[in-house]
Design brief:
By secondary structure, the protein is an alpha/beta fold. The protein has one domain: 3-Layer(aba) Sandwich (Alkaline Phosphatase, subunit A), CATH 3.40.720.10. Helices cover 34% and strands 15% of the residues. Helix 13 runs parallel beside helix 14.
């Protein structure tokens, strides 16, 4: 006997009840597009219906490669030259510089902390006269292609919240990352590779590596099809990509078609958007079975290109290899590549491990900019280099024990650089004070940086929102001012 409407309602599970209200334009259009082999145009149409008409205006950049240095590179030893630190080496920091400021528990009260000169000497480079230390000789040669922002500041003093703040606009996990926002809003230019890829590395032998949390490339409250796909350092680049023994391409295709039909029925019943993600992931995995081997086969790269990236360019899992992969990914249509390298947390290893970090990252970073430029890709590819905060101008440890010199976390001013994608080349924007302790001119907050990044991709950060739990969220929360001084 058929159930009465009342009995039918009582038999609904909570998931079914909530899911039934989720069916709408985006779900129907996305599912229809995913069930098509040739789906790029339809998928982008469905995405545009959800995110609004994007871009809002003509973009300068079409794609982003973010070289994120986990652990916080020391601005005072790499890019922010301060003669006063040489002059006052070994003297206590004047109290006026840190009054009312919060430092990590390793510093505690900064009263009496001694100023520390740069470990390596500095020189000016290129027509721009940019100051770069001897730690970064390859970056120094690329100085005229770079835009240094020396007045960055943030609110977080510990690593994970500070990284999360840079990547999501919130110090608490759960918000979408930059790459997720961009692939949700702008779609992807490839049907055979993920629109958002994350790769990680750490220098060999380091004692100060950072943990890479999955939420560093997560989609937060956006549909999970927009989360970053992590490429692994060992084994298969992407987990579970290979077919089981005895399963050929025709059989796999027929299996996926059958699964898609079953998922279509399930989506009609529940309206759960994660069903769409499941279909999209199956289809992407099928296409990646052919595209990933071609992507990672670097035999076709000329020797002079491999040499440009350095001796580790052919070694899986290194920063150099990941930079090369980043270029190959964006060439093939990936929208956002996040290359994260850990080991910059030099609390007591400035005179040892900082050399290793720079050796492993300096040449590949500069090579990536040069490689993109010579291929005509730098103009519309935005490259970013930087960490979650800087390091203190004063010493952590005993100033008389040079092999153990270190610096603590410093959120109040630090340096990042950008290249290509609509930013001015060969400039330095903003400045820190004479001790590299606080911004002196043109301070740039994390939300300002994010607003400017979106602007370069043709997006008004105040208009690009996503409604979740009754509120419209955006990457920049309720903050952020465009940094016009760096725009080309």
């Amino acid at each position: 006997m058929p159930q009465s409407p009342h009995e039918s309602a009582r038999s609904l599970t909570r998931r079914q009840f909530l899911g039934s209200g989720a069916t709408g334009l985006v779900g129907s259009a996305a599912l229809a597009s995913m069930l098509s082999r040739d789906n790029t145009a339809r998928a982008n149409a469905a995405r545009s219906a959800a995110a609004g008409v994007l871009p809002h205006f003509a973009p300068k950049a079409k794609r982003v490669i973010y070289l994120f240095m986990n652990g916080a590179p020391t601005h005072t030893d790499l890019f922010d030259y301060k003669p006063m630190l040489e002059k006052l080496h070994g003297q206590p920091v004047p109290e006026s510089y840190f009054a009312g400021k919060r430092f990590s528990t390793m510093t505690g009260n900064p009263t009496g902390k001694l100023l520390l000169r740069p470990v390596e000497p500095y020189a000016q480079h290129g027509r721009s006269g940019a100051w770069v230390s001897n730690f970064m000789p390859h970056t120094a040669k690329a100085a005229d292609d770079l835009c240094f922002i020396k007045s960055m500041h943030t609110t977080q003093v510990n690593h994970a919240p500070a990284v999360t703040f840079f990547l999501t606009g919130s110090e608490m996990p759960g918000r979408p990352t930059l790459g997720a926002w961009l692939t949700y809003g702008l779609g992807s230019d490839t049907d055979n590779l993920p629109g958002y890829v994350a790769m990680t590395s750490v220098s060999k032998g380091t004692t100060c590596g950072q943990i890479f949390y999955d939420y560093y490339w997560g989609s937060g409250f956006l549909p999970t099809q927009y989360q970053g796909v992590p490429f692994r350092r060992g084994g298969d680049p992407v987990l579970y990509l290979a077919d089981p023994p005895g399963i050929g391409r025709p059989l796999r295709r027929s299996m996926l078609d059958g699964l898609a039909q079953l998922n279509a029925l399930r989506h009609q019943e529940l309206g759960d958007p994660e069903i769409l993600t499941r279909v999209a992931q199956y289809e992407m995995a099928y296409r990646m079975q052919a595209s990933i081997p071609e992507l990672t086969d670097i035999q076709s790269e000329p020797k002079h290109v491999l040499d440009m990236y350095g001796p580790q360019a052919t070694e899986r899992g290194t920063f150099a290899y990941n930079c090369l992969m980043a270029r190959r990914l964006i060439e093939r249509g990936t929208r956002f590549v996040q290359v994260m390298h850990a080991g910059w947390d030099q609390h007591n290893s400035l005179t040892t491990e900082l050399y290793n970090q720079c050796r492993d990252t300096d040449q590949p970073s500069a090579a990536l900019v040069r490689d993109l430029k010579q291929r005509g890709l730098l103009d519309d590819t935005l490259v970013i280099w930087g960490g979650e905060f800087g390091r203190t101008p004063f010493i952590q440890g005993d100033i008389n024990n040079r092999p153990r010199w270190g610096r603590d976390h410093h959120p109040y001013v630090f340096t990042v650089w950008m290249a290509g994608g609509g930013v001015k080349a060969g400039i330095t924007y903003g400045a820190s004070d004479e001790l590299a302790m606080n911004p002196a001119t043109n301070p740039v907050h994390v939300h300002d940086f994010q607003a400017t990044l979106l602007h370069l991709l043709g997006i008004d950060h105040e208009q690009f929102t996503y409604k979740f739990q009754g509120r419209r969220y955006r990457l920049t929360d309720v903050h952020g001012q465009l940094v016009k001084g760096i725009l080309a």
